[in-house]
Structure formats: C-alpha cells, structure tokens
C-alpha cells in the first residue's frame, strides 16, 4: 500500500490520477484459489454444492474435511467468499487521500452481497467523516458525486445547479450511519430521509416509493 501511494503521488505530478476506494477491509467475490492464497482469513458466503458451509471459516471447513486448499475450493464450487486482505490503518490513509473517489462496487445480483452494496456511503459520511474526522462532510460528498461524475464523463451529474439532473439524497448528518455487516449485509442504513433520481422521489419515509426513473448513463452523452 505504501508503494502504491508513493507511485500515485509521483504520477500526480505529471497527470490527473483517480483512486477508487470503498470503506471496508475485506472484499467479496466468487471463491477462487488466488484470492484465498492472498488472504489472512476467508469466510464462505454461499456454496451451491455445500450450502451448510455458508457463513463458516474456509480454514475450518478444510480442516474438518482433511483435504488440501485446492480440494476444499473444488468441493465448494460454485461458491462465494469474503476475503480479509487489507489493514484498517492503510484503508484510512487511502480514504484520506484528497483525490480518492469513493465508490461502492456493489453487486446487487450476488446471493450474499458485500455490505458495501448497502452501506458504503452512509459508512463514509457517518463513521469516517463525522465520527473519525478523516475529512469534512463536504469533501466526502464531493468525492462520492462530482468526482465520480468527472471520472466517468457523466454530463450534468454529480452537481447541484440549475439545468443539471436532479439526483439528490437528503440525509441527517448527525445520524447517518451504515448498518449492513458481513453477517447481515442487507440491513438498511440510518439517517437517509429521501432519495430523488432524475427529479422523482424513489425513497421516502424509510420505504421505496415504487418509482423507477433511472436511466442508462453513457460517457459524455448528450441530454
């Protein structure tokens, strides 16, 4: 991580550098040998062949079966896992990096999603900005919105001004916080009062309004 940040700092002197990050020390995807080998701990989130293993530690399963890592992975397939590969201090250093873009990288179709799908932005606003004071609230919002719109070339998005698309989130800065965890990844965050997409409310009073005003976004597309 230190080498990566040093390389980014060097590159910034010559060009614009964008660093994407989500606020968790563990990742989640399908079960693969490469990720298992790089992780300090692996939790199985789901397994079609052995559904009883969901939520269990991979190493405990392997030892119980008395097989190699490769054989355990093969037996569990198809499967998903949570990989503990990062350090909290490193994560905070990257989050505090002034040009870091904050994104969720969530996979809504996952059988057992990473909590980043439901909790990324409230976690940054409530835990890392308000509680830990890594950066001001305004900077947190900018790096979730305007920076992302610039990086992906989305015209009239990520800003609040006349003529731009009305994509807005109304939240309570004193109470906003994530509730999703690796054990319960679909828990609703607190402090989100209303969500407006393309000028139409989609979330109000802790419930979906039934509206679906979203649209496909393309880089530098005309209105």
Q: Any overview of this molecule?
A:
The model has no long low-confidence stretch (mean pLDDT 90). Strand 7 (192-197) and strand 8 (200-204) form a beta hairpin. The chain is of the alpha+beta class and 223 residues long. The strands form 3 sheets. The chain has a 3-stranded antiparallel sheet with strand order 2-4-3, with no helix packed on it. A 3-stranded antiparallel sheet has the order 6-7-8, with no helix packed on it. Strands 1-5 form a two-stranded parallel sheet. It is 32% helix and 17% strand. The protein is built from 8 helices and 8 strands, in the order H-E-E-H-E-H-H-E-H-E-H-H-H-E-E-E. It is globular.
Topology overview:
Elements: H1 2-12, E1 19-21, E2 26-30, H2 33-37, E3 41-47, H3 58-65, H4 69-76, E4 79-84, H5 88-96, E5 100-102, H6 116-131, H7 137-144, H8 146-151, E6 168-171, E7 192-197, E8 200-204
Parallel strand pairs: 1-5
Antiparallel strand pairs: 2-4, 3-4, 6-7, 7-8
């Amino acid at each position: 991580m230190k080498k990566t940040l040093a390389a980014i700092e060097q590159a910034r002197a010559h060009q614009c550098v964008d660093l994407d990050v989500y606020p968790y020390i563990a990742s989640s995807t399908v079960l693969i040998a490469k990720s298992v080998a790089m992780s300090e701990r692996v939790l199985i989130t789901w397994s079609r062949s052995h559904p009883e293993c969901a939520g269990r530690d991979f190493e405990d399963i392997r030892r119980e079966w008395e097989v190699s890592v490769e054989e355990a992975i093969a037996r569990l397939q198809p499967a998903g896992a949570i990989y503990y590969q990062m350090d909290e201090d490193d994560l905070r250093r990257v989050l505090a990096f002034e040009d870091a873009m904050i994104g969720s990288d969530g996979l809504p179709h996952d059988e057992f999603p990473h909590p980043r799908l439901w909790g990324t932005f409230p976690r940054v606003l409530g835990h890392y900005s308000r509680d830990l004071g890594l950066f001001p609230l305004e900077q947190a919002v900018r790096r979730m919105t305007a920076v992302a719109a610039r990086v992906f070339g989305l015209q009239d998005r990520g800003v609040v001004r006349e003529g731009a698309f009305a994509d807005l989130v109304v939240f309570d800065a004193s109470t906003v916080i994530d509730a999703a965890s690796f054990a319960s990844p679909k828990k609703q965050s607190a402090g989100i009062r209303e969500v407006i997409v393309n000028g139409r409310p989609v979330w109000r009073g802790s419930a979906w309004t039934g509206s679906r005003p979203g649209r496909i976004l393309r880089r530098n597309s005309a209105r």
